[in-house]
Amino acid sequence: MKLEGQVRIPSGCAIAAAISRDGKRMTGEMIANAMKPMHDRSNGLGGGFAGYGIYPEYKDFYALHMFFDCRTTRKDCEVFLKEHFEIVKSEIMPTRKIPAITDEPVIWRYFVAPLQSVLHAQQLDEEEFVARTVMKINTEHPGAYVFSSGKNMGTFKAVGFPEDVGVFYRLDEYEGYSWTAHGRYPTNTPGWWGGAHPFSLLDWSIVHNGEISSYDANRRFIEMFGYQCTLQTDTEVITYIMDYLLRRQGLTLEEAASVVAAPFWSTIEDKPPAERETLMYLRTVFPGLLITGPFSVVFGFRGGLMALNDRLKLRSMVVGEKDDMVYIASEEAAIRTMAPDAENIWAPAGGEPVIIRVKDGVVV
Amino acid sequence: MKQYVIIGNGVAAAGCIEGIRSVDSEGAITVVSKENHAVYCRPLISYYLQGKTDLQRMNYRSSDFYETMNCRVLYGKEAIKIDSAANHVLLNDGTTLPCDRVCIATGSSPFVPAFAGLETVEKKFSFMTIDDTLALEQAVNANSHVLIVGAGLIGLKCAEGLRDRVASITVCDLADRILSSILDKECAAVMQKHLEENGIRFMLGDSAERFEGNTAVMKSGKRVVFDVLVLAVGVRANTDLAKALGAEVNRGIIVDSHMQTTSPHIYAAGDCTEGEDISLGKRRVLALLPNAYMQGHCAGVNMAGGSAVFNKAIAMNSIGFFGLHAMTAGCYFSGEEGGEMYEQTGDGTLKRLFTKDGLLTGFILIGNVDRAGIYTSLIREKTNLDTIDFEMLKKVTTMAAFSGKSRREKLGGVV
Amino acid sequence: MSVDFIYPEFEVVRNDSRCIACRVCERQCANEVHSFDPKQGSILSDERKCVNCQRCVSLCPTRALKIVKSNCTLRENANWKDDTIKEVYKQAASGGVLLSSMGNPKEFPVYWDKILINASQVTNPSIDPLREPMETRVFLGKKPDRITRDQNGNIRCKLPPQLELSMPVMFSAMSYGSISYNAHASLARAATELGICYNTGEGGLHEDFYAYGPNTIVQVASGRFGVHKDYLDAGAAIEIKMGQGAKPGIGGHLPGAKIIGDVSRTRMVPEGSDAISPAPHHDIYSIEDLRQLVYSLKEATQYQKPIIVKVAAVHNIAAIASGVARSGADIIAIDGFRGGTGAAPTRIRDNVGIPIELALAAVDQRLRDEGIRNNVSLVAGGSIRCASDVVKAIALGADACYIATAALLALGCHLCRTCQSGKCNWGIATQRPELVKRLNPDMGAQRLVNLLTAWKHEIKELLGGMGINSIEALKGNRLMLRGIGLNEKELEILGISHAGE
Amino acid sequence: MKRVYVNEQWCLGCHLCEYNCAFANSGEADMVKALKGKPIYPRIKVEGTELVNFAVSCRHCTDPMCVKSCIAGALSKHDGAVCIDHSKCVGCFTCILVCPYGALSQGETGAIQKCELCLENACGEPACVKGCPNGAIVYEERDTL
Fold it and tell me: What is the pTM (predicted TM-score) of this model?
């Protein structure tokens, strides 16, 4: 049977997220528990989390989380890493042995900084360099896979139910101001850890529920710009699209949202002239990045989250608040698990981005 | 509320009623009808004899006509005087009808010359009314020999109507040709031949001088024995009422293009009038059904305070005998009068077009009468023949002879 | 030659028990096949003259007529086919190049018919176009590489010139001259009503049609007929015709007999002179020359109009397209080898070029590989026959499609493929006034509008089935396609998987 | 009121309208049965020259001469349409004499026939319009000139 990446596998999902606008850090236990009431939205074939603010002591270094299929692969890959990065710390990922999670690969993490000499030689900025190098490893080093590459953040994922994945990765021992979670219901059983979500690149991470029908149009568009969609997952392509729009084209989150979940032409035509012009422009310039078909995503970035539904709102997603906290989940039950007295629960309209940032002045 | 009185109950009266009602739905209309019949189609009496219609179908309008039009009809009454000073009409029964506007639509009556011995003829008839027709129908049988005096429209239609009911029909006329008022010599000959082929016998240039019982003694001295005599010498407009009133009367009551007589508030329409024939450029009596209706309608509109003009009267006739049709219209000016004639003959067809001063003034068609109205309209509209392809039109009646623009106007708009 | 080697291709079958001798067939046949025999009171037919345009069949009020293929057969021969033998006879008799019209009728693979479209089931909802918005609007033209902002941080919204279409279909080039005034009027009016474009072809733009300029693509071809400043300014876009799918490498030839009256004036060619479009543009002998013409035309129109370069699908089309994409052109139109023509040498039409499906797939992938796909829009033409062909073309990577044969069919064309005779009984490929008037543009435009309205509905249904609600999400979305009965190489070129994979 | 108009720019002179008219008024369900082997009596007729063709049928005049001239009271206007009561017509042809368009003609029985807009027959809408292959005949409302 073909592995994820060799073939596109549709899947249904559960997602959840929580953020403290005050930048207060919380352990990953809460978000892991939030996935429990949505147990039936996953089928045990993938779960994962992303936490922001979890590596304050290494906040200036890229934290590379990696899967290796064996020790030899790791050794070979480390040679490659050393040619590109200064590795300030390398360690085996702390995990718990639990019966629900088995067959784990070799999981390591590295805190790295790009070698200035190599950066200079390639005439690339740091982020572009890191992104390319990650993609190079993922495409050219069979058996090695970088599944997290941001600063002061990290993703944790595995084959299993998400609540078990949380236990496995000892999330109760991490503290972050923002967490996202994902439970997966893929329609076949490749059982590959890399295929679990979130998908992340640099500081961006995506948890996604849905199956986008525009996938190949998006993929073939984005691949023109150096991205390689090795997993053939929606999450992966959405991550790359967001990276392209935010980092490479310099769009704001709102602008990016209006590309991927572009308003209908008829809606655009009813807007005030200046807004209309911009929306027209963005939709005309990036037609290949319009994402259609059902999706609800939570996009994590440094200092915030953005929740977004497809423009027809073909997937459930609700948002709630309590004090400085904001919660997002596929189902209200997940929010109530995290904050039984959450307020202002609402379902954002299709295509309407919900952007939450930590308050001004909060350093994350 | 206006009071209208219409004297007469023929087609002109019907037109007048409809004309009034197109403007005034309130006013009181009284119709004085000498005949005891609702308005009927007089020209159909010959078709009645032929069996092509019946009394029911001869009604000009549906049975609820007067009711729908909200008018009162006084049957079997005659108006004997119009008192315009007192604004009333006096009837033969002594009653008076108050009136604001009067339309004289008294039609015409048969003209019967003073033949010597006419009183000795047992069965003699005119051929104008239903009553005449019914009486005639009673008088004839398969063995009857009928003599018709007058080879005009009435006489010949009567002959056609009777042909299958009687043993023989002879038509005599002082004129040397039949239908002398509408056909020229050659055309009359074509039609005469056709009638003769259908069993009608003619004595032309000859007429009855006196009668001795069932025998007519002709001018030529010939004697014609008959059972039934029909007198169809001609008609006279009924103008007495108008004359008495002091309105100007010639052979008919003089009317202007609004159908008004020279007396105020008094109008006239139909066979009793004399108006302008635009093809002739002169006034004449045009005793034709279409004219009667249009005049009546025009009079009615004007009586009711509307504004209508009828100024396109021309002489025209569509007449057929035993399947051969003839259509005529307008005037046939001779060469001396400055006219020109175009002729086309064919298998049983004859066409004569008469032009003068760049206008079509008249035509005679025998046999092929398709789309004859196109010619008629040229006369009526006084169309300058230079503006159309008259060469084409001479040969065939077609709208193609008009310029594209004028054709598109005629066919492409609402008319 | 006194012996006619060729038995008539068609038989006119008249059902005498139904024929009422109304003579409509006689009046309607410009080839004078039918004639009335007054003696018998019946109609005779001379099938030698019949081209099977079906005009008489269509107009016969009692359906007394049909045209069938003659079953007079030569001895069967798998190598020497009937047509091949008859072509030899014709050339032996005439000594001339064989001429044909419309598209290649030979039995080459039609890849559209070997590609299947996906639909959503369970994991992803299909979308009902009757309930949800379903967008088909496209913009053709170069898209900027980078977003730029003004000093206030606002996005600078200046786009290179774009062609906006309400749906991804346009009427492709057919010149006034090759087709009639009324055919052009029908196309122009339909394009305007539909919010799409039609294309003048190399015949110039009749003065009556300047009013449709915003929906007109004006073509500049090798003969430069009818090209002047006002003409260039009149259109919504300018198309440089480098080639045509039906006759790659061949120019055009409109005989002097057709260069009369308005055609002559519109083309700016003297009455009666042949209008010969050279095979190459004589100022374009290489790609850099093309760039010069592209920029000349941009200069002439103040950079207000997108420039389309139309090329025939030939073997190295991907490389050609890559060059064109870097030439400054905004749109590349690729015309496949089944595209139609008003007249082409038969040998060329039937043997030169490649199918649009393969050409389109190769070009789209090549431009993406080179990262220049957004430099240009791609328009695919050359036998796009129906809405599913459009959907497949878009999914392979086209931005829009050109249709012409389908449009002519809507106008009444029955594909008799004798346009070159100039006696088109349907009033399309003719300049004879009595024939031209047979195409009433009121009806023609309406039928075209109907056709594309129907296609638009079908496109929306297909999109909805795929769970897509905007056409741009279909563009290049090859995952929505599967091949059926195709070999590995074909699948590779098309960039699609086989059905079942 | 809707009337039948012919746009001569598009009239091909194919004469189909005549056959469709004759068929519509034949009372037959099959055109072959209705028209085969006999002369036709259409109420619309194609006229023209080499260069131009057009079909003529009743204009349904606002002020129709034919109605006013009918000696038998067989012609009348109903809801704007000029109609004929065939039972009353005696075939005098006065209407032919007065119609400026040549729109009335002698029918198969000798009585007059004219376009009645197919309001009375099974067609229900003008058969000439429905059957015109080039949209040259239209049934529409137009303004008075």
Answer: 0.89
Burial of B36 (0-12, 13-18, 19+ CB in 10 A): exposed
Which CATH number goes with the domain that contains C200?
3.20.20.70
Looking at A86-95, A339-348, B102-111, B405-414, which range is the least confident one?
B405-414
- Condensed to tens digits (0 to 9), the pLDDT of residues D45-80 reads 999 998 899 999 999 998 899 999 999 999 999 888
Rounded Cα gap, residues C364 and C382, in angstroms:
16
What's the CATH class of domain D61-114? alpha beta
> Is the CB of C443 less than 8 angstroms away from the CB of D134?
yes
Check residue A188 and give its pLDDT. 57
Count CB atoms within 10 A of the CB of residue C66.
15
Which among A65, A70, A45 has a CA at the least distance from the CA of A193?
A45
Are D133 and C17 a contacting pair at CB < 8 A? no
- According to DSSP, the β-strands at B88-91 and B235-237 are unpaired
- The tens digit of pLDDT for each residue in A312-334 reads 999 999 999 999 999 999 999 99
Question: Does B397 sit within 8 Å of D72, measured CB to CB?
Answer: no
Q: What is the mean pLDDT of residues A61-76?
A: 95
Q: Got the DSSP string for B84-128? A: TTTTEEEETTS-EEE-SEEEE---EEE-----BTGGG-SSEE--S
Q: Domain of C27?
A: 10-96
* C198-199 sheet: strands from edge to edge: C169-171, C400-403, C377-381, C331-335, C307-312, C237-241, C216-220, C198-199
* DSSP result, C383-429: ---SHHHHHHHHHHT-SEEEESHHHHHHHT------GGGS--TTSSS
| Amino acid, single-letter form, for residue D102 | G
Helix (H, G, I), strand (E, B) or coil at B278: coil
> Where would I find the beta strands (DSSP E) of B14-167?
28-33, 71-75, 79-83, 88-91, 96-98, 101-104, 108-110, 124-125, 145-149
- If you count them, how many residues does chain D have? 145
Interface contact A349, partner C, CB < 8 A: no
Domain boundaries defined on chain D? 1-57+123-145, 61-114
pLDDT score recorded for residue B414: 67
Tell me whether A255 touches chain C (CB under 8 Å). yes
Three-state secondary structure along C392-403?
Answer: HHHHHCCCEEEE
Domain D1-57+123-145: which topology? Answer: Alpha-Beta Plaits (3.30.70)
Report, as an integer, the average pLDDT of A20-29.
Answer: 95
Query: Nearest CA to A208 among A274, A289, A296?
Result: A296
- The answer to whether the CB of A59 falls within 8 A of the CB of A352 is no
Chain D residues in contact with C61 (beta carbon < 8 A): 16, 19-20, 23, 31, 131
How high is the pLDDT of residue B280?
A: 86
What are the residues of chain C with a beta carbon less than 8 Å away from any beta carbon of chain A?
120, 123-125, 127, 132-133, 135, 137-139, 143-144, 146-147, 149, 154-155, 157, 159, 162, 368, 371, 373-374, 397, 466-470, 472-480
Residues of chain C with pLDDT under 70: 1
- By Cβ distance, the residue of D12, D20, D135 closest to C61 is D20
Q: Are residues C474 and C327 in the same domain?
A: yes
Say which CATH topology domain A11-357 has.
Glutamine Phosphoribosylpyrophosphate, subunit 1, domain 1 (3.60.20)
Looking at chain B, the whole-number percentage of residues with pLDDT higher than 70 is 100
Chains that touch D (3 or more CB pairs under 8 A): B, C
Counting Cβ atoms within 10 Å, is residue B54 exposed (0-12), middle (13-18) or buried (19+)? Answer: exposed
pLDDT tens per residue across span D96-118: 999 999 999 999 888 899 999 99
Q: What is the distance in angstroms between the Cα of C190 and the nearest Cα belonging to chain A?
A: 22
Type of residue numbered C484:
I
